[in-house]
């Protein structure tokens, strides 16, 4: 039955194509996303302001790592803690044209200090003699409740670990409701602290269409629109599997979503920009950083993206797709809270090594540095390192047992990272890397960035906090105007669609051909804490049964066996979900990132390359692709 349901979607998509060009008739709203993270390119905002014909311009800046960095900045300077690029780079140069064009702006650039962000932006407006109503949403900051939560016995929602004593930051993921309300109150610009990324798009849609807060299919559709565009150029050809087919990276277009009042929408980009909007590109973005696609939990709605359909539309410069089929149910009665806590210090040394047997030299050098410094810090009365990570980049060590055999590269990069409870120990470590260039293996040609610096290790701690106990406030031009109350929901937990006993599809035609996964599918991977997900999308529906049989949870676990670092969490290492609407699967790899984020000592702490690594997975005994797809 699963296979029939998956293959029937191809017929459904043909039917939907007939209506794609008419489905957005009536009132529509255009929203452009000009930032996918703090540090994104400055070319995006002018593209969308002058060539996007947008009603709303949104900027996403926040991640768990970014929140930690902003908290550290605010600790040192109380007026900081927001993304200054938003004020000085994204808005200031264009503020007059944003005003004259009537474009309204929404951003989570406020970080851990949204009121200071708004004050900085107000100064820019005054300097340009521009009148703007700037709203701020607060209430995500839960640090004042630290003692109360510690006494309440709060535990991590994944690991069950107790509430840490060294909490560094604590922010709830707020939803789109207060953003929509601020727009209802007349805000030209809305600045938030932590909110779910998709809320910056769902907020304007709620405001524009006045969708009922219990029409969960509409809320899921708006959330999907936000999910697709909130990572900026990733929806327009950035980091696409077929990267070699994408032109114009120097001026890659940023995404625009045009949404109708029924929740269907079209994704495109400004004309005469680089990149590509296509079904495979947008499909990759849809599966990015999700878990169970039938139960993607957000503050406003629990989304089911498993039967979403994406149809390419003709006649658009750079491509466009029509998206429909999201479904929703009631959200949880709690907010997810992302907290970080201090857990010692870390330092990372990166050095180039050249010449024959470069990888072997780098590895032996690293072990010698660790052995020497371990003795030194013990002699100073300190304990040994709490963690050590040695990687030799260029030797395919990140592939584990799948590394290409052979003599190894003649140039490599040594990645040597350590953690310790005391900063003083890492100062010893930092001093002892450069001496390896004269007293150990030959060919060490440079220490990237100079002597490494010790920095705090911040680990993630996530839990649920009741919405009813969260006070959300809306400020306008520095004054508190009202508090926002979340609507009541009749939430009930739905059973996950995950199963570890996927039925083998019998009687598939066999042949003499073997293919790498890259020839059969697209992939995209990303992180949530210490979890990585890998979306796998068939290049043709008729290839899907072969992917189904080959990419089992056991096969994926074996392929990535070298990355799993916690066998005691009580959850499977690998979970597999299906997305029939996209002819796709989503694999969730738990405890696979060495702690994830800035807690991880790995060179890829967010699993961004995992999908690329899976492209070398081989599937045997197949008919030719031509036989199957013609």
Question: How would you describe this protein?
Answer:
InterPro entries: AtuA-like_ferredoxin_dom, AtuA_N. Residues 29-476 form the Acyclic terpene utilisation N-terminal domain. The structure is a single chain. This protein is an alpha+beta fold. It has 3 domains: 29-139 and 174-331, no CATH class; 345-456, Alpha-Beta Plaits (2-Layer Sandwich); 513-629, no CATH class. It is built from 19 helices and 26 strands. The chain has an 11-stranded mixed β-sheet with strand order 11-12-8-7-1-2-3-6-4-19-20, with helices on both faces. Strands 5, 14, 15, 16, 17 and 18 form a 6-stranded antiparallel β-sheet that branches. A hairpin with a 2-residue loop joins β22 and β23. The protein is globular, with a radius of gyration of 25 Å. Mean pLDDT is 92; it is low at 1-21.
Please name the defining characteristics of this protein:
eleven-stranded mixed β-sheet; 19 helices; 630 residues; Alpha-Beta Plaits; disordered N terminus; AtuA-like_ferredoxin_dom; alpha+beta
Helical stretch count? Answer: 19
Beta-strand percentage range: 15-25%
Domain count, please report it.
3
Taking the alpha carbons of the first and last residues, their distance comes to 24 Å
Number of strands: 26
Classification by helices and strands:
alpha+beta
Average pLDDT rating: 92
The global form is: globular
- Round the Cα radius of gyration to an integer and report it: 25 Å
* Main sheet record: 11 strands, mixed
The helical percent reads 25-40%
Low-confidence regions: 1-21
Physical arrangement of strands within the biggest beta sheet = 11-12-8-7-1-2-3-6-4-19-20
